[in-house]
Amino acid sequence: MALVVQKFGGTSVATSERIMAAARRAIRARQAGHQVVMVVSARGDTTDELIALAREITEDPPAREMDMLLSTGEQISIALMAMAVQSLGWPAISLTGAQVGILTDRFHTKARIRTISTERIQRLLRDGYIVIVAGFQGVDEADNITTLGRGGSDTTAVALAAALDADLCEIYTDVDGVYTTDPRLVAEAQKIARISYDEMLELASVGAGVMHSRSIELAKKYNVPIHVRSSFTDAEGTWIVAHSPELEQQVVRGAALVRDEARVTVEGIPDDPAIVHQLFARIAEQNIVTDMIVQNVSREGRNQVSFTVSRSDLKSALALLREIAREVGATEVHSEEDVAKVSIVGAGMRTHSGVAERMFAALAAEGINIKMITTSEIKISVLIDRHRAVEALRAVHRAFDLGLKRDTDDGQPPRQRPTEPVRADRQESLASIVQQLPGMEAIVVSDIVVDRTQGAVTLFDIPDQPGIAARIFSRIAETGSIVDMIVQNVSREGTTHLSFTVPRPDLHRVEAALTPLLQELGGSLRLAPDIAKLTLEGVGMRSHTGVAARMFEAFHDAGIRVSLINTSEVHISIAIAEAQAAEAERRLRTAFGLPAAKTVNY
Ligand code: ADP
Ligand code: ASP
Ligand code: MG
Questions:
Q1: Residue 184, ligand 1, Cβ within 6 A
Q2: N or C terminus: which one in the chain shows less Cβ crowding within 10 Å?
Q3: Which of 40, 173, 180 to probe ligand 1 with, by most ligand atoms within 8 A of CB?
């Protein structure tokens, strides 16, 4: 006998027929001898309709009342589902988030789960009930109803699966699995048979709306196997599981798009690390998630810092940045609203060369200009004009042959909890950290890795035009060098700076390859052989605000300057002067509560 959590999304419970179909599915699992917990979303477009209704009353609905309102959508579904199961002759009971004891923090409309009490559910399961839980909602310490953010029922389902130590979490939705990209935008998209937590976490956080990214954070932390599948058929869907080496054979697994991005830039920040720290700390305090952070020291000794935020946060971000700029004597704050972010994700990128080049070449061929670039070990993101977003997604999807059917990608579903030998130690150390977390969704920083094998190259004042990045990275690819961190910042007066890291022994080869190109394009090149790359590893590092701020705080009174930064859900990497690496590592370990480094080999 196993314990299964089955989650049904809005489309899957939109009509009474579909509710009956979902009920039958749960009963089938029950008949097969399993204990079944169902998590259901609001029916069809109910949540959207409730939001629209609130806006008819007031432009700025109070968050507490919004949660009171939105939680009713799921409450309708659980009652109907319990009636459906009972009408088919099986015992069932519906429970709201509060009744289950899903305790969250107090941030209305984006609450995070702290704890779930499992006694009541376990008792009901033992008594043979199918337990039907309202997704997306919980209750804070003062008994106020909270919601988890749009798409949050996935997170309820995985959190319950983790708390109950379920054998499997099934996500029933209106597509038959996770695709290489949104099949509604790119018809050639292919279903992925198996994907690792890290890849799915990155994909979900860069726009693959099929899963709430916080649900994958939980799955990774608690090692919950997920099967995403269609509620309309019995077809095998996508398994989201721990990393396995065979997954790396294909370098890029998927592509995604975030349409509602906005970019902000603060110019002329006095060159004092304390100021950069203050800036990120105050943005984090407002719960604004910053993405694609780029900072450059301009040659007049003043800094430029840019980052992207969700379009809905732009207004508050700008107001705050203008205030900070005034206080610290920065010269200007500017922004751009009509931008979108296109990303590619794949664990195999770590070890393959030419990935960036191929992505940039695909965009160049469409004449799409790249406005910003950031990377992580397993993703590359570019910022482009919003009106070209879907074209860009299609071009990139094609460039990596993601529309081709793959024989290698029809792996058998794991029947047991997948454990992965190579990184078993990582999973173990993650598990011991997870046990001590103050809340289920609390951020995890599990390790710091120092890499002294790379050097940085910065190209100054290169033209900001379509195709330039493609030409540069094609030259680098010809040298066979594997490019790691890439950062391109916002253009000023038609030119931009581009920085990246390559293995140190390759630096001069890369310089020699780029020099003729720079003579043609204009611009200059600077090598920085003596850098160290520090990587914070963890879970949920981008979506929890404040990680970058904490890092800058740890450094600011030691005069440690971060020359490059790349952020993602599972990694934050920075480049700093090598001479400061040991001190920086020590400070980061203290700031994030990690034990001192085990081996000191420098
Ligand atoms: P549910 O209501 O079941 O939670 P969602 O609408 O949240 O369903 O998620 C399913 C939708 O996600 C699909 O209909 C699809 O358009 C969209 N989607 C976006 N990216 C992907 C992807 N990479 N693979 C599959 N579906 C995707
Ligand atoms: N009903 C909520 C929403 O539409 C939660 C969910 O469906 O996951 O966002
Ligand atoms: Mg969803």
A1: yes
A2: N
A3: 173
User: For position 561, which CATH number holds?
Assistant: 3.30.2130.10
CA 127–ligand 1 middle distance (angstroms): 35
In a domain, 554, yes or no: yes
Question: Of the ligands numbered here, which is closest to the C-alpha atom of 42?
Answer: 2
Whether ligand 2 lies within 6 angstroms of the CB of 97 is answered as no
Q: Ligand 2, atom 9: nearest CA belongs to which residue?
A: 150
Q: Which of 146, 174, 202 is the last residue of a domain?
A: 174
Q: What is the pLDDT of residue 433?
A: 82
Range of the domain at 16: 3-174
- DSSP per-residue letters across 250-293: SS--EEEEEEEEEEEEEEEEES-HHHHHHHHHHHHHTTPPPEEE
Same domain, 149 and 293: no
Backbone angles phi and psi of 409, in degrees to 5: -105, 25
Report yes or no: 527 and 513 within 8 Å, Cβ to Cβ. Answer: no
Angle of helix 355-365 versus helix 389-399 axis, rounded to 10 = 130
Question: Which residue's entry shows tokens 């030409």?
Answer: 471
Return the amino acid letter for 267.
Answer: E
**pLDDT at residue 195, as a whole number:** 94
* Ligand 1: nearest atom to the Cα of 177: 25
Report the separation in Å between the CA atom of 222 and the middle of ligand 1, taken as the mean of its atom positions.
Answer: 23
- CATH number at 162 reads 3.40.1160.10
Averaged pLDDT for residues 134-143: 98
Given a cut of 50, whether residue 419 has pLDDT beyond it is no
Task: Determine the distance separating the centroid of ligand 1 and the alpha carbon of 334, expressed in angstroms.
Answer: 34
Tell me whether residue 104 is in a domain: yes
525: burial class by Cβ within 10 Å (0-12, 13-18, 19+)? middle
| Candidate from 150, 171, 172 with most ligand 2 atoms within 8 A of CB, to mutate | 150
Does residue 493 register a pLDDT over 90?
A: no
Total domains present in the chain: 2
Are 158 and 267 contained in the same domain?
Answer: no
Domain shared by 297 and 158, yes or no = no
**Ligand 1 center–CA 186 separation, angstroms:** 13
Express as a percent the part of the chain with pLDDT over 90. Answer: 75
**Global pTM exceeds 0.90:** yes
Say if ligand 2 is within 6 A of residue 152 CB: yes
Instruction: Pick the last residue of a domain from 174, 202, 236.
Output: 174
In 10 A of CB 432, how many CB atoms? 9
Rounded CA gap, 396 and 399, in Å? 5
CA distances from 265 to 51, 317, 372, 387, 447 (A): 32, 11, 12, 21, 31
In a domain, 182, yes or no: no
Calculate how far, in angstroms, residue 210's C-alpha sits from the geometric centre of ligand 3: 6
Q: Are residues 453 and 583 in the same domain?
A: yes
Ligand 2 atom nearest the C-alpha of 149 is 9
Answer yes or no: is 179 within a domain: no
User: Which atom of ligand 1 is nearest the CA belonging to 180?
Assistant: 23
CA–CA gap between residue 341 and residue 290 (Å, rounded): 13
Report d(CA 342, CA 381) in Å as an integer.
6
Asked if residues 281 and 532 have their Cβ atoms less than 8 Å apart, the reply is no
